[in-house]
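request received
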Amino acid sequence: MDGGFFTKSRARNIFFGGSVFFFLLLLVLTFDTVQKLPKSDHRENITPEVARGKLVWETNNCIGCHSLIGEGAYFAPELGNVYKRRGEAFIKAWMKAMPTGAPGRRQMPQFNLSEGQMDDLVAFLKWTSEINTQGWPPNIEG
Amino acid sequence: MQYQSQLVAKPYFIAAIGLFIVQILFGLIVGLQYVVGDFLFPEIPFNVARMVHTNLLIVWLLFGFMGAAYYLVPEESERELYSPKLAIVTFWIFLVAGALTIIGYLAVPYATLAEITGNDILPTMGREFLEQPLITKVGIVIVALSLLYNVTMTTLMGRKTSITIILLMGLWGLSLFWMFSFYNPENLVLDKYYWWWVVHMWVEGVWELIMGALLAFVLIKVTGVDREVIDKWLYVIIALTLITGIIGMGHHYYWIGTPGYWQWWGSLFSALEPIPFFVMTLFAFNMVNRRRRDHPNKIATLWALGTAVTAFLGAGVWGFMHTLAPVNFYTHGSQITAAHGHLAFYGAYVMVVLAIISYAMPMMRGRVANCAKAQLWETWSFWLMTISMVVITLLLTGAGVMQVWLQRMGDTPMSFMATQAELSVFYWLRVIGGGVFFIGLIIYVISFFIKDKKEAVTTSV
Ligand code: HEM
Ligand code: HEM
Ligand SMILES: [Fe+2]
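response:
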């Protein structure tokens, strides 16, 4: 790689030119994505409950054990589609029953959510389960 | 060591190693909780231990990068650091803020921490890797600004080399992309979209610039190869990195509510991302083969070669394994992801930081290299940590393949928890692998205290 046509300054120009070009391409693709998102994220359904539910999700660090649409931790089940897998009543009963205390079994904490927080959380999980994820996950088990 | 102010790197490196030890202890805790589900429950639930494990990783790597910058920039610029005092003050701010954050995670429930640190003002918490309270996030910005100011001024007032320019671009990029951690819209899809502008743009973008600069610096020092040659390689590597890696971010936009065309963009470009890592391996071996001197610091050279190879394995090979959309459809968010995350972070960033520490620490302690005996201990730690991390990766890959098979393929998929129960052998062996890694780390620390009375390699540079 020394001498000849391929000099250090050529390499540097390719670096600067290439980076700028592909960053601009990213911006173009981002612009297009943001235009198209409303069709797949159904933002018209983001009610105040859904927005508050996201905060409940975040301030209890649910992502520290679970994944949400495949991102997060892998210690506990995927929850992006849990609304479809289990339904509202099950989710609420589950949250209240924690921790199971079964010896040796992975334990989920008791978060002591109020009824209102519980409703918000379920609204958030319902909205999440309706995002168009191009068919992911492969089946209902997540 | 040529400039007195390079010494400010020392506390940064010591703190990095200290936090590394705690990171691994918490890794062992999360690893055990995978198989003994109620271990330390309810005192330290899994989510808390995991957060400590991953955040400490990021924080100690940042300590390492900063120490490296303070060490390298004066030497490359051929002048003293602009303000050594500022660097020391910044060190203490970062250490205290980091320690308080970790204590906060462990001492109070996360919801309480969010409340008392004013997450309501601007909700940013509760997202993977970005769990820090708002004040800690702001603290990181302040620390970054102080670093940037200090090293940029030093560079501007001194000699400008390709290495410092690339390092500075990496550090500026790191700080700029961090700003996306403050953006957390109500819309989960947008939240996820820009979350990756921190995470992917770091590890597959600007951090690679930092890695390249550190690797090149160590290679110049230990091989004595001409700068022109090294610089050219370096520009080729980072050009390939950003040309593939920026649009390669599309490999995270397959299933999060973003348009389907990302499956094409992401697959195509991210499939090329291993190339810069491969070139980095060629680069490291080429330089060592063409060396003009036999530097007495053999172990620094070993770390430099090791980081190139292991980064290629972890990021290149294990990254490629699950990056094509049709594969990722099945592996997304499985133990395959965890396998890749471990080897990539270890190979690329842990090892490059250990390489620069290995080179710079003896210098700062007044010798060109450690005695043969200390280097032997460090060599043992190199192999113990590296091999156990490869084994951990293989075990998690085994677990991941089985998980995908049982839970995501076939007509009668098993539930998540039932699948996990089937994988417990892999997880038990992983804990043992983690134990060996920890032993390697302890040996690494011991190597700093090994002295050989007969053989004193105490010369100045
Ligand atoms: C050697 C002992 C270690 C053990 C037993 C261990 C174990 C674990 C476990 C159980 C998780 C959580 C997986 C989940 O979310 O379910 C995790 C996450 C993680 N660990 Fe470790 N770890 C160890 C060392 C390391 C090292 C040395 C690094 C850095 C090189 C590291 C980096 C990470 C990262 C980046 C994650 C997040 C992974 C992801 O999101 O895919 N760990 N670790
Ligand atoms: C040193 C560089 C790299 C590091 C440190 C790294 C680390 C990681 C980590 C920690 C994750 C998990 C993120 C999460 O928690 O959701 C991840 C995900 C991923 N990485 Fe990398 N990575 C690197 C390079 C690469 C490269 C070069 C490729 C492709 C060739 C790649 C492909 C992927 C893919 C496809 C995912 C998503 C996995 C999923 O869908 O669950 N990575 N990486
Ligand atoms: Fe990525």
